[in-house]
């Protein structure tokens, strides 16, 4: 059983980490997608879909569990759990709606 230290500062740090993680994922996808855009036929808004669909989970938690107390294990566990729960509940449940919304805005043509 794992008990998390839900201190106010840790929760605030976790909530601040959510947009930072999303922004970093978006930024890390820009270069490779733009580089391969001419060679590969990406759907419109690929970077946005991959950013929102980039779910986080077990590996992140396992890495946080591997930290020692001297490495601020409790802080990283709480922040990681908040980001993972947001990722699973919010992103996981809405990624399909995002793709459908983008499909409606950019309908598939015959040459795609």
What does this structure look like?
There is one protein chain. By secondary structure, the protein is mainly α. The chain has one domain (8-105). 69% of the residues lie in helices and 0% in strands. It is built from 4 helices and no strands. Helix 1 (8-36) runs antiparallel to helix 2. The mean pLDDT is 89.
Question: What is the gist of this entry?
Answer:
This protein is mainly α.
Order of helices and strands: HHHH
Shape descriptor: elongated
Number of domains: 1
Task: Work out the helix count.
Answer: 4
- Secondary-structure class: mainly alpha
Topology, element by element:
Elements: H1 8-36, H2 46-52, H3 58-65, H4 73-105
Helix pairs in contact: 1-2, 1-4, 3-4
Keywords:
112 residues, mainly alpha, 4 helices, elongated
